[in-house]
Amino acid sequence: MAGCGIRSLRWGLESVLSSATHSAGLLPPEIWVNDADPDRAELLNRNLEPLRLKGGSIQLANEPAEALLSRAHYEGRCFDLIDLDGFGCPNALLQPVLNVLANEGVLLLASSDGRSPTGHDRCGAIRRLAAAARTHPASWEVALRLQMAALARHAWVLGRGLEPLACFSDGRTFRLAVRLKSRLAEEEEHLLGLLARCDACGDQAIQPLLSLQGWPSCHCSPGDGRWAVSGPLWLGRLQSVEVLGALLQLEEQLPLTMSPVSFRLLQRLKADVGLPVCCWSINELAKRLALSGPPPVSALVEALRSAGHQAYGSALMAGQVRSDVPFPELLRVCQSIHRAGR
Ligand SMILES: [Zn+2]
After folding, report:
1. Is the pLDDT of residue 104 over 90?
2. How far does the centroid of ligand 1 lie from the alpha carbon of residue 144, in Å?
3. Average pLDDT over residues 167-182
4. How far is the CA of 231 from the centre of ligand 1 (A)?
5. Whole-model pTM over 0.85
6. How many angstroms does the Cα of residue 94 sit away from the middle of ligand 1?
7. 220 CA distance to ligand 1 middle (Å)
């Protein structure tokens, strides 16, 4: 999956640089680079030359990832960081990857399967995620939460816990960075649950699997509503303020390593850790209330906070407000913002 090796080169050069600069005495990192296609070997070799010149240690391989990971497991080898970025859904590799990820090690996981976790291939979601996936205005976030749940189940089977560090998407690729813990955090099992949304009225509800009961009534007239339920998915936070803050600080120390776009993305993610779970589309709210336009995200967030609720603009999709406000009150707040703005 290394392709032309650009990511390996960046990992290598940046870690050689930072280990030399900031942690004198540490051994330089050893980078394992694998692409299953043997025709890429020569190109990879050539592209990684600048890393060798800097003293980086590189192990190049051209074999299926499963083979490399299984052999590492057999040999008792662990990696501090694994960057898994193939085509489609990566879930067939989760267990082999977690088997060789060190305690406190970091996994960067990419999935370019956008159809099954966003409710557009429901049978695919059952096969790849063992989950129900329904369409949702915050579909990118639902996809990330479904993927995180799949990862958590694989980690938990091994008795290990997960700490999300950063999760984001551009709608085509869904990216998760997580830290593997030696054991589950207290009540970590409570973070697996279901998200329900009524397409008729737009109301939403969540429940952890551990305390699953019947669903409450939605905002429809009695008998008219119908919940479409997605999950099991991850109900916990999606970002680590500490790690994102440290990455933003790194930008000052290694100014050439981060583009302005990435810098702004990290700032956005740091400002919205992903809780509460329910996200509301401002366009959908405006449509339901027959308003002439959507309320500004910032005005809605401010009004909800003034009313004593948690509220954040979503860092994962534009035009979404994350809040724990009950739906009828959310509609009233939107209505009053609209009146005040006229
Ligand atoms: Zn309803």
Report:
1. yes
2. 25
3. 97
4. 19
5. yes
6. 37
7. 4
The C-alpha angle with vertex 12 and arms to 8 and 18, in degrees rounded to 5, equals 145
Q: Which of 105, 239, 217 has its CA nearest to residue 166?
A: 239
All residues at 6 or more sequence positions from 126 whose CB lies less than 8 Å from its CB, including other chains: 132
* pLDDT (mean) for 276-290: 97
Please enumerate, as own/partner, the contacts of 47-55 that have beta carbons within 8 Å and a separation of 24 or more: 47/4, 47/5, 47/6, 47/9, 48/5, 48/8, 48/9, 48/12, 50/9, 50/13, 51/8, 51/9, 51/12, 51/13, 51/16, 54/12, 54/13, 54/16, 54/17, 55/16, 55/28
- Confidence label for 77 from pLDDT (cuts 50, 70 and 90): very high
Centroid of ligand 1 to alpha carbon of 320 (angstroms): 19
- Measured in Å, residue 226 CA sits from the centre of ligand 1 at 6
- Max Cα-Cα span within the chain: 71
For residue 266 the two structure tokens come to 């990290």
As given in the structure block, the two tokens for residue 35 are 């692409």
- Residue 40 φ then ψ, to 5°: -90, -5
First to last CA, the chain: 54
What is the total residue count of the chain? 342
Cβ atoms of 10 and 108 within 8 Å: the answer is no
130 CA distance to ligand 1 middle (Å): 26
Q: How far is the CA of 313 from the centre of ligand 1 (A)?
A: 24
Considering only CA atoms, which of 67, 93, 73, 83 is closest in space to residue 31?
A: 83
- Domains defined for the chain, CATH in brackets: 6-191+228-271 (3.40.50.150), 279-341 (3.30.56.70)
